[in-house]
Recover the amino acids of this structure.
């Protein structure tokens, strides 16, 4: 059982352990020791460190830099940049590890890290365990002549922009295509507008002026209301909202309808399938809408569910030698183009599909009517075993409420002290009734 790392790195309130400057120095030092242990020959180990726009990023960046340097690791600093850019740069610079300082869609008070291997994939559990074993060790600097050096990467954003543009056909033009971009006052605020301008789009920008305190503040993929209004008011063809670190997205149709990750995954899957580009099947998660699974079955496309978390989607894709997967939260993994989820690249694939079909997004989504889902988070004062007989019994009773046609999922959050409940079925009324039943039963024992 890991002490610090959750399903996607480390996350918490800034100033509360472990999101403190002293811990991050130790984290950098411990990760540096693990790196140097695995380096062969005279090669100097190196790390790429990026961050989103939170004010605490400055403090934590300096702490990590000090820790890595004390272990003899060279440091490349990118400044504010999306998480998937760190995965790309770690590979392109032949660095040994990549670290993104971010708390994703959380408010500015929170922060944390996401880690990538030298291959641009999420760091394995094995390496995370090795780092945890050393985190509380005493820091013993290497000899002064072997201390790590640090430098800023002035062209990091330009490299990433070109990487994203290479994922679409050279002849792709978005001239006369109006898009509203919601950058969540986060890590995409510089690169996303530049990419869509270079493609010729008529863009309307919202939430693109970060001040260190407004990241995700009523903005981005978790707060689409402002985006919906702007799409309607500007008569745009499409709305796109990223989260604070840019590894996921949601969309809004020209009619103002919200388009979630399951629908985005379907749009890309359908396009690839029609182009005979789909290799193998599709990976969703335990949260993926049942309608997508049934659509895959109808089309003869294999479908598998992974645990919740884009790292688990990626791992299953690699095991199956497939290339497309994602979460309904908007993490879309396209291994043909990138090693990890990338909101900008995913949005470009959707737009390419729309232009190829010469259809509005609302037209295509009529092909995938989603089942009603009810999602409820219950704060936990005590730990609840989701595999207990009690939980299994109330799940069975909730399924009976939905006439045996629905699906129930109860799981503990990997990043917060919450129990997440999901019910899903053909009937909106019965799905809601089943969810309310579960909440009442769980609250009675928590």
């Amino acid at each position: 059982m890991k002490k610090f790392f959750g399903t996607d790195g480390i996350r918490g309130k800034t100033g509360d352990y472990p999101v403190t400057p002293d811990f991050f120095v130790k984290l950098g030092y411990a990760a540096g020791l693990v790196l140097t242990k695995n380096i062969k020959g005279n090669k100097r180990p190196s790390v790429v460190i990026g961050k989103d726009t939170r004010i605490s990023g400055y403090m934590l960046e300096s702490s990590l830099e000090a820790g890595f340097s004390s272990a003899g690791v060279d440091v490349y600093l990118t400044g504010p940049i999306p998480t998937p850019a760190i995965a790309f740069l770690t590979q392109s610079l032949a660095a040994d590890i990549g670290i993104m300082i971010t708390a994703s869609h959380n408010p500015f008070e929170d922060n944390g890290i996401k880690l990538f291997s030298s291959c641009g994939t999420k760091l394995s559990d094995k390496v995370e365990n090795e780092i945890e074993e050393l985190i509380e060790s005493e820091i013993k600097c290497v000899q002064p002549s072997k201390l790590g050096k640090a430098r800023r990467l002035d062209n990091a954003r330009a490299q990433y922009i070109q990487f994203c543009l290479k994922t679409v056909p050279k002849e792709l033009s978005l001239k006369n295509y109006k898009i509203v971009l919601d950058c969540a006052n986060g890590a995409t605020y510089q690169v996303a507008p530049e990419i869509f301008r270079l493609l010729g789009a008529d863009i309307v920008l919202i939430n693109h002026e970060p001040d260190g305190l407004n990241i995700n503040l009523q903005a981005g993929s978790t707060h689409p209301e402002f985006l919906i209004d702007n799409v309607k008011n500007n008569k745009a063809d499409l709305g796109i909202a990223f989260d604070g670190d840019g590894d996921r997205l949601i969309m809004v149709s020209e009619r103002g309808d919200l388009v979630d990750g399951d629908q985005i995954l379907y749009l890309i899957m359908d396009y690839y399938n029609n182009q005979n580009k789909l290799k193998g099947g599709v990976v969703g998660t335990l949260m993926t809408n049942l309608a997508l699974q049934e659509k895959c079955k109808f089309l003869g496309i294999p479908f598998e569910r992974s645990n919740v978390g884009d790292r688990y989607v990626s791992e299953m894709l690699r095991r199956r030698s497939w290339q497309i997967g994602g979460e309904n939260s908007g993490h879309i993994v396209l291994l043909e183009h990138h090693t990890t989820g990338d909101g900008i690249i995913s949005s470009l694939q959707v737009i390419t599909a729309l232009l190829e079909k010469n259809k509005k997004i609302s037209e295509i989504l009529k092909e995938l009517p989603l089942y009603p889902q009810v999602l409820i988070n219950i704060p936990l004062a005590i730990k609840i075993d989701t595999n207990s007989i009690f939980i299994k019994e109330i799940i069975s009773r909730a399924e009976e409420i939905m006439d045996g046609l629905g699906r129930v999922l109860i799981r503990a959050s990997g990043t917060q002290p919450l129990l997440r409940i999901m019910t899903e079925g053909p009937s909106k009324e019965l799905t809601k009734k089943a969810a309310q039943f579960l909440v009442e039963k769980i609250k009675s024992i928590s």
User: Anything to note?
Assistant: The two ends are 23 Å apart (CA to CA).
